[in-house]
Amino acid sequence: MRLTPIRRQVLDALYATHRPMSAYDLIDRLAPHEGDKRPAPITVYRALDFLLDNGFVHKLESRNAFIACPFRHAPGDLVVFMICEQCGGVDEACSDELRGALTHLAQIQGFSPRANILELAGRCAHCAGPTETAAQSTPSS
């Protein structure tokens, strides 16, 4: 596995933010000053393909954007993305229990999943604030 300069630059740009970025956001980030040569879209897409194939980044299908992956997942691991609709931040988590439940559900439906990625949209704990977060964790009567 070879991390070329452009692959490293794309990965560094994704690690520099907690928000997903499109390929064109990355192009803008890689050439921040006027007069700097902007990388061609195909160059960035090829770097992203390599980073995706090797588990360095994930693609958020609902946003058509990419985010760096700080974890090394096994091929069958279920990855859950919690996407804040207010600040745009993304948290990543894995759950063996949820993976088992979804695997069972898919089996009884005769479904063969291609990818084990789940995206949740809502508000993060920071944006929700302490009052709303506490209310969500309190059981209803």
UniProtKB/TrEMBL annotation:
Zn(2+) binds at C84, C87, C124, C127. The lineage of its organism: Bacteria, Pseudomonadati, Pseudomonadota, Alphaproteobacteria, Hyphomicrobiales. One of its GO terms (cellular component) is cytosol. Keywords: DNA-binding, Metal-binding, Repressor, Transcription, Transcription regulation, Zinc. One of its GO terms (biological process) is negative regulation of DNA-templated transcription. Belongs to the Fur family. This is Transcriptional repressor. Binds 1 zinc ion per subunit. It comes from Alsobacter metallidurans. InterPro entries: FUR, Fur_C, WH-like_DNA-bd_sf, WH_DNA-bd_sf. Its cofactor is Zn(2+). One of its GO terms (molecular function) is zinc ion binding.
